[in-house]
Amino acid sequence: MAGDCGKWVVMVTAQTPMNMSVIKYWGKRDETLILPVNDSISITLDPDHLCTTTTVAVSPTFDRDRMWLNGKEISLSGGRYQNCLREIRSRATDVEDDENGIKIAEKDWEKLHLHIASYNNFPTAAGLASSAAGFACLVFALAKLMNLKEDRSKLSTIARQGSGSACRSLHGGFVKWIMGKDEDGKDSLAVQLADEEHWDDLVIIIAVVSSRQKETSSSTGMRETVETSLLLKHRAKEVVPKRIPQMEEAIKNRDFASFAQLTCAESNQFHAVCLDTSPPIFYMNDTSRRIISIVENWNRYEGTPQVAYTFDAGPNAVLFARNRKTAILLLQRLLFYFPPDSFFGLNSYIVGDKSILKDAGIEGIKDVEGLPPPPEMKDSIPSQKYMGDVSYFICTRPGRGPVLLSDKTQALLNPQTGLPK
Amino acid sequence: MAGDCGKWVVMVTAQTPMNMSVIKYWGKRDETLILPVNDSISITLDPDHLCTTTTVAVSPTFDRDRMWLNGKEISLSGGRYQNCLREIRSRATDVEDDENGIKIAEKDWEKLHLHIASYNNFPTAAGLASSAAGFACLVFALAKLMNLKEDRSKLSTIARQGSGSACRSLHGGFVKWIMGKDEDGKDSLAVQLADEEHWDDLVIIIAVVSSRQKETSSSTGMRETVETSLLLKHRAKEVVPKRIPQMEEAIKNRDFASFAQLTCAESNQFHAVCLDTSPPIFYMNDTSRRIISIVENWNRYEGTPQVAYTFDAGPNAVLFARNRKTAILLLQRLLFYFPPDSFFGLNSYIVGDKSILKDAGIEGIKDVEGLPPPPEMKDSIPSQKYMGDVSYFICTRPGRGPVLLSDKTQALLNPQTGLPK
What we know:
The structure is a homodimer. The model of chain A has no long low-confidence stretch (mean pLDDT 94).
């Protein structure tokens, strides 16, 4: 170790995306290593709209490992953090920071402590699982700081031990988490199927659904499903292994009809095995079901899928529109059924890529009120409006994998003290 | 044919109960004969609270078969009615009505026409499937009129062709519908496992849940599940065959804990395969889920099941309390969360066996307002009230099978004209 009298701080800042599964991960075969009962496939979301930024720092002045999440210090004593930190430290190598004249030898990493600050660019209240982006960012940033030689897929096996789905956030675009066979989990990792440019027609709209229910955590939920559902094993052994190559093919060919059929069926089957759990787990509510009806009715009316839906461990809908034109029609439908509260207005109701709103010709509440009922709306859905049932919508798209942020102003820790700014 | 110059009318009136399945029937292997993909088990409900009354009449003056349901004439041209009428006519035998000096020979039945009037003693708006009791009553009454020699289980094979679950309404108490193996459906029939006296501790409370959704008919729903669900086959082949003997054993031993565990798991798995259908079928809504939470929380708090729930093709909850004492505690909980609208009052809010209400010490709205929160209610369920989410409750019990009503004043057809009274 060398440097300015041991007062130096070395920092790395990274940004890592969220991902949304289209072939679902539900059920572990190993709780500690976090090994799943089936492969899964996800789409990485544009980090401009949904991401985690993490700064990791090392300094001989730090007396213990510490972490701040969204500005608040949290404990690192949990097994998941400890597993990730241990796995990364064991792979650390020599670091030479020529700029500041600092050298850290491989053996020093065991003695040095870390400061970690992490921040999500979306409200926690959204109920959007942030642990995937969070653990992926932690692992990616630390791997850079400690000069790990492992590639992203290898790093994904470490992130996986923090939060299963985190492994998929190590890549951009379209990602497969291969369940693997090894008992030690070394082959349970994420690979990129295609990058985010491959299918850039896709538009993603997330409906953040208001909920008064306290939800079962996904860890608890999947454990209870594994223990009690008589359908889960059949799903994992017979259904998913057939769907994985079908989904890979659909993505490869940008075949939206197959993609939509598989994505919706997967979401529904995941919630079906939750319901087959004892006691049953409900993540979707009446608003979620209403959104499904709107999409299913529209798809049936058009004769070919326009939009696919998927729901994770909560009531929020993630909708995939086949292209920008469809996304405009989708947003009009969503605003027709779920208009914004006129007091708060449109600006905070549609976030992310607001340009879709503009292309839809909607600039204010008046334009929403003027939206005609969708033509597919017959007696099947009453023309009722559900103001207040959706908190807001996020417009986004497939996005890139983790990146380093070299702009030092974006660091979350003070470069002198190593404490949160 | 002999009698008073061909002006006679011969009539029979019968009353037949509804039944509620605890091992679910969902999916046909033969759409025309109505042959199921698995066995099912039901409990017959007390006809004092839920039943169909049917009068069937024959007269040489009738020029065609006609039917009135709840006072309104309906068409008999549907395949299901035609199948039942054909099957019954083919088994008709000689009838001698000594009282009126009328003789009808076996061969005459092919030429004679029928009048049928049917009436449900519960509102159609309840969304409680009335076709089971209806077809069972039609078949039972006609079998008597036409002097069929078949026993009730044989008659159940005819009722089955009107509506699958109707076959189970031919018996009282606890009933199994054996799926059978024959292609012609002759061995797909209902048998009684135990009569209604066997386990008369059980109290049944039905929550009629308000719903704005238009529901998928069960015929359409089960066809779509058979065609698209990848989980249904596994359920029918692997899961239900194991649960049937377990449920028979639980009923035989009046083992409420096993009965409750199986009943709830079956209800949830049935709704799981509905959700696994494409497009997904939702019968339960947020109110249904709230009732499940109330029951699950209470059962967990007590450490042993107090109440079981089951939901058919709609949002209504059917709750089984282990005994009268538990039923009182259940009703108090239900009224705590779902109080009646004070304008309409209690009298029309709790129907059926109102004595449970009295034993619960609840005589008016004031008593409902004074109900304390259940002790198991911690932070898990907010102490919110959901007035208006339940339309009303029906208190009932296991009941008897079909009976003939010899009191002629109860006939629904005029004995002279054979037309509705």
